[in-house]
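Give me the fold.
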Amino acid sequence: MPKNMDVVVISVNSPLKIGIYEEGKLAEAIVKEGKSSDELPLLFRDILHRYRIGRLFYAKGPGSFMAIKIAYVFLKTLAITKKIPLFASDAFVFNGGEPIKSVGKSYFVKTDKGIEIKKLDEVPPMEFHLPHTLDATLFSKDVKPMYIAPAV
């Protein structure tokens, strides 16, 4: 039987990114363009065939409302049915705290007061990265999606 691997899912925007971690180190990175609703089931069919998942981690937002909702429902269902612990963090953990696209020229910005929506004239780069080393202390058991703005 294979070792327990931890899985990190970043699906707050495109592309979808999934990291497979062995003993806290990134062993495999999967990057896939497409809708989370289409890609997550296919990718996890393969992941579950190749690995035994010890823990699931995901970015619960802010970001694409639909992508966050799909990731939550999919991962929560997987966690319940397979009895895998699920943990979450905000998406700023994966982009160095940079603004995250909301709607139009609006961006989610993390401040001392929390997460706010601000209009920005300059478009900041918005790239999310799978960490080389998984720091589980950045995640919590509060896995409910982070909906800052209403669905558009």
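The mean pLDDT is 93.
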